Structure formats: structure tokens, C-alpha cells
């Protein structure tokens, strides 16, 4: 009887999960619009909090690297995210779609690694008043660039699959975790309001978001550097 009850509960949860996925699929335009609105409002609040919590110099450094991160994402969009949103939905055969997604995932990894390396080199080579030369911040800057690019990649993957549940798993943890970190910076500025914490706070939400996507199985079956990936790309 106990086993039967557990099976029944599992079936009920499965039906509810399927129903929720169907609802998100039917409302995918509304979900996408609300998601973008939430990110826009959060981005505005993020800048206000950083402006309030950081010194002028630190805020200038953070603003510079936020701009450079957006530039890196624009390059990523041209190389990876744009083709992902255009060609993947148009793939007629499942195997073709798998090969294409694996090739784009490989190109994305190389793009992210290149951007993170350039960010680290640029920070190390910059003059003192525009750079952060302590070791932890020097690591936090390329981590921030790479984490943000991977979040954008997973968002594009969700759109290419028309998977709004995946989109929420990408942006929900990011908003929650980074929002919590920003709240800590405002509540305890003596302990948390510094340059390194600002970069780590923005990276933490992206990293938790990626972990949630992986646990959900969003990267299942995607093999990097498959034979012929460059030709497929």
C-alpha cells in the first residue's frame, strides 16, 4: 500500500509538472515579455544599489566592466546566440539539431574563454586608477564576464527550444541570488560594499543559474568538440 501511494503521488506530481510546462508553452510570449521586464527593472535597481554602496572609483571600475561585458555579449550574439536562435529551430532532423547545438556549444565555450582571458589581460595591463590589481578582484573580473556570457547563452538556448521553463530556471535564480547579495551590500556596507564583492555578487547569480540548468538536464546529450563540429558550425 505504501508503494502504491508513492506511485500515485508521483503520477500526480508528473501531471502537475506537465500541466505547468504546457501552460508556459502556451504563454511563451507573455513569459518572455515578463522575464525581460523583470531583468530591465533589476538592471536599473542594480546600478542604483552599486552607486549607493560603492565609492566613486569603484563604481567607475564596475561600470566599465559592465560595459565591456555587454560588448562581449554582443560578439557572442553574433557568433553563437544569433545562429542558435535562427538555425536550431529550423533544423528538420533531430540529429541535425543535436549536431548544430553541440557545435554552437563548442564555439560558445571558446568565445567565453577568449573573452575571459582578454578581460584578465586588459585589467592587468590597465593603469592603476582604472584597474583592480589585487589578486581576488583580478580573478573576479574575468569570472564576471564569463558567467554573464554563459547566462546569455542559456537564455538563447531556452528561446531556441521554445522552453520557457528553462528560461525561468536561468533568470529566476540569477535575480534571487544576485538580489540577495545586493541586499547584503546595502544592509552591511562595512563588510560587503567593496569592489570584489560587487563583481562576485553579479557572478554568483549567474553561476547558480547555470547549476540549476545543469541539474535540470538542460545540457543533456550535448557533447563538446564532436567530430566535424567546425564544419557543422
What's the gist of this structure?
This protein has helices at residues 2-26, 28-53, 56-90, 94-125, 135-161, 164-187, 189-192, 195-216, 229-232. With 233 residues, it is mostly helical. The termini are far apart.
Describe this structure in words.
- The protein is mainly alpha-helical and 233 residues long.
- It is built from 9 helices and no strands.
- The chain has helices at residues 2-26, 28-53, 56-90, 94-125, 135-161, 164-187, 189-192, 195-216, 229-232.
- Helix 5 (135-161) packs antiparallel against helix 6.
- The longest helix has 35 residues, at 56-90.
List keywords for this structure.
single chain, 233 residues, mainly alpha, 85% helix, globular
Fold blueprint:
Blueprint: H1 2-26, H2 28-53, H3 56-90, H4 94-125, H5 135-161, H6 164-187, H7 189-192, H8 195-216, H9 229-232
Helix and strand run: HHHHHHHHH
Number of strands: 0
* Morphology: globular
Strand share of the residues?
Answer: under 5%
Indicate the low-confidence ranges by residue numbers: none
Amino acid at each position: 500500500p505504501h508503494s502504491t501511494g508513492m506511485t500515485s503521488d508521483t503520477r500526480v506530481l508528473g501531471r502537475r509538472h506537465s500541466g505547468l510546462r504546457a501552460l508556459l508553452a502556451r504563454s511563451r510570449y507573455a513569459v518572455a515579455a515578463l522575464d525581460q521586464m523583470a531583468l530591465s527593472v533589476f538592471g536599473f535597481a542594480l546600478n542604483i544599489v552599486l552607486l549607493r554602496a560603492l565609492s566613486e572609483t569603484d563604481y567607475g571600475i564596475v561600470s566599465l566592466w559592465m560595459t565591456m561585458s555587454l560588448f562581449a555579449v554582443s560578439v557572442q550574439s553574433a557568433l553563437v546566440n544569433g545562429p542558435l536562435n535562427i538555425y536550431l529551430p529550423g533544423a528538420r532532423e533531430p540529429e541535425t539539431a543535436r549536431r548544430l547545438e553541440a557545435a554552437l556549444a563548442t564555439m560558445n565555450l571558446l568565445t567565453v574563454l577568449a573573452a575571459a582571458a582578454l578581460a584578465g589581460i586588459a585589467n592587468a595591463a590597465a593603469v592603476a586608477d582604472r584597474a583592480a590589481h589585487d589578486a581576488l578582484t583580478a580573478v573576479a573580473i574575468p569570472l564576471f564576464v564569463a558567467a554573464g556570457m554563459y547566462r546569455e547563452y542559456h537564455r538563447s538556448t531556452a528561446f531556441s527550444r521554445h522552453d520557457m521553463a528553462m528560461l525561468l530556471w536561468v533568470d529566476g535564480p540569477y535575480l534571487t541570488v544576485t538580489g540577495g547579495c545586493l541586499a547584503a551590500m546595502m544592509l552591511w556596507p562595512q563588510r560587503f560594499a567593496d569592489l570584489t564583492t560587487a563583481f562576485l555578487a553579479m557572478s554568483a547569480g549567474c553561476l547558480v543559474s547555470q547549476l540549476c540548468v545543469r541539474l535540470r538536464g538542460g545540457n543533456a546529450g550535448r557533447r563538446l568538440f564532436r567530430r566535424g563540429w567546425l564544419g557543422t558550425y
